[in-house]
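Appendix C: a fully annotated inverse folding record. The material below is reproduced so that readers can follow the format used throughout the book. The structure is listed first as tokens, followed by the designed sequence.
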């Protein structure tokens, strides 16, 4: 079982919004419960994301623009950490950006 892989990537990584459950933007190397950053969900996958986390995604948590911004940052390549083949995280300056794909 692959758990954690560091990927040095110089080519594009493309995920479509249809593949994404949510993104996280926060302080690097801190707790990701939401106290050090924010989660933003795609409008297309709110029902699936709600089922996965165990409660409904609310309208104020949906932000397709933030999701698309994070997706764009991953297209630039660089050092990306892959966890469990569906979580991808990248640190740029003082921010951590994480993409959670639909399982």
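Designed amino acids, in order:
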């Amino acid at each position: 079982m692959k758990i954690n892989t560091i990927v040095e990537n110089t080519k594009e990584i493309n995920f479509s919004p249809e593949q994404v459950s949510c993104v996280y933007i926060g302080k690097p190397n801190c707790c990701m419960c939401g106290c050090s950053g924010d989660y933003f969900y795609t409008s297309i996958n709110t029902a699936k994301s709600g089922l996965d986390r165990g409660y409904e995604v609310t309208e104020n948590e949906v932000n397709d623009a933030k999701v698309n911004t994070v997706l764009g940052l991953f297209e630039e390549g660089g050092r990306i950490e892959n966890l469990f083949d569906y979580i991808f995280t990248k640190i740029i300056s003082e921010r951590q950006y994480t993409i959670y794909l639909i399982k």
